Amino acid sequence: MAVKMNCLLYLSFSILIAISFVLLLTHYKRSKNKSKRKLPPGHMGLPWIGETVDFCKAQRKNKLYEEFIKTRIQKHGQTFKTRLMGCPTVVVNGADANKFFLSNEFKLVVSSWPSSSVQLMGEHSIMEKQGGAHRCLRGIIATSLNSAGLEGLVPKICKTIEIHLENYWSGGDKIISFYSLTKVLTFTIVLECFFGIEVKSEMFETFERVLEGVFAVPVNFPGSKFSRAKSARKEIENMLVDIIRTKRKEIEENEKEKEGEEGTLLSRLIAALIRGEISEVEVVDNVVLLVFAAHDTTSFAISMTFKMLAHHPDCYSTLLKEHNEIMSSKRREETLTFEDMKKLTYTWQVTRESMRIFPPIFGSFRKAIKDIEYDGYTIPKGWKVLWTSYGTHYSGEYFEDPLNFNPSRFEETIQPYSYVAFGGGPRVCAGYQLAKLNILIFVHYVVTKYDWSLVCPDEPIIIDPLPFPSQGMPIRISPK
Ligand code: HEM
């Protein structure tokens, strides 16, 4: 009996020693690996807050490149570390970095939005999806923007713009707030033309209230920006659920629409809902997300196109010629077609160049899902990665004389991943074609029907956190 007890004790003791040895070895290996890994250079700043204040200050003045990124690139190189909003972050710059991080979405990194954005856009929106669910939603959006979809969108967008101009631009010579009105227009285009949802009064303001909280501190106390945004989101949710259920009934009674091969993006989403591919809450979240993704970005791109045209009269004359040629090939009252859009190459170069200098989205955050070896450094799992368009758009390595406005530079082939106004990789902008149509058609209407000039040519641009002209870009207009 005593011998048996001794044996058991001996066995337990040996197992304990073995486990301790394995644990020690693992710990040693880990700390050895940790000490071997080389973090990018840079300063983490103050505890928790890091360099957030410098980042936000520079961002607000629209000097993120000059005052935050460029100075650190000069000190540390293209890849540097910092701490932003409590998170250790690596800022990466250059076409190779854009390609590496944007194309490795889902494999090495995943997109990483602040908690307030996720709560307000909805955790079932495309920006939170990965793998098959992400592909499914992108597929539905893509079929709405195939060539048949785009052809059908042109007359709808023309009609909406005509109504908009009649409502807000008519009445002879006057001053209007260009950016603020263009926001209303792009909002109407995405909801009415793309989704097929009629815009009712107050809808714009309610969506705007949601957007105001998208980057706010996610504290839900009464009166805070975030709580106001949350209650606006609830109103939108209720309204959308009603619309979706009514539309669902209609579709279920119409076999063609049930296939999801016809109609607007909303009918395609609901057809997918009926087929059981997505849920009702996914339809709601994606309507909210797409409206958010579409209207601020497009209206800012349009505004900067006009700002740059005002500052470069020679470019304006070339652009005007392109539009007059289209006009002269048409009978009175004949509207634009999808074929006409293909002729507006210079106009699109002007817009691309304006977005190179004033990107509507300056970049976005990713989160490392494993330790990443990049540029001779290790980016530890869990750290954030910030890619920015400034790192290439403002670099002489990719764009000669980068601060000079020169739309013709887009006649040449541009190095992949150096022009990233629409992002790249699996999360490249899903609404690129809609944005392009919206911009080209609106420019056509304005330049062929109005004489216009900027009231404040040097109006500053503020980024908070999306860019906008600080005074709403007032312009003086008179009908031609
Ligand atoms: C000039 C206008 C626009 C610009 C500059 C722009 C820019 C961008 C950029 C840079 C991204 C990538 C973000 C990232 O990598 O994290 C993106 C994604 C996205 N954009 Fe746009 N966008 C514009 C208009 C639109 C429009 C009109 C729509 C929809 C109708 C739209 C829908 C989306 C969606 C759904 C995504 C996320 C795609 C995904 O996660 O797979 N965008 N956009």
UniProtKB/TrEMBL annotation:
Subcellular location(s) per record: Membrane
PROSITE patterns documented for this protein: CYTOCHROME_P450 (PS00086)
GO molecular function, one term: heme binding
Pfam families in the cross-refs: p450
Cofactor(s) essential for the protein: heme
Entry keyword set: Heme, Iron, Membrane, Metal-binding, Monooxygenase, Oxidoreductase, Transmembrane, Transmembrane helix
Residue intervals passing through the bilayer: 7-28
InterPro entries registered for this protein in UniProt: Cyt_P450 (IPR001128), Cyt_P450_CS (IPR017972), Cyt_P450_E_grp-I (IPR002401), Cyt_P450_sf (IPR036396)
Topology of the protein relative to the lipid bilayer: Single-pass membrane protein
GO cellular component: membrane
Binding site for heme: C429
Highest taxon, organism lineage: Eukaryota
Gene3D superfamilies xrefs: Cytochrome P450 (1.10.630.10)
GO biological process: sterol metabolic process
PANTHER family: CYTOCHROME P450 26, TAXADIENE 5-ALPHA HYDROXYLASE
Record-stated family: Belongs to the cytochrome P450 family.
UniProt-recorded name of the protein: Cytochrome P450
Species of the source: Buddleja alternifolia
Top-level taxonomy: Eukaryota, Viridiplantae, Streptophyta, Embryophyta, Tracheophyta
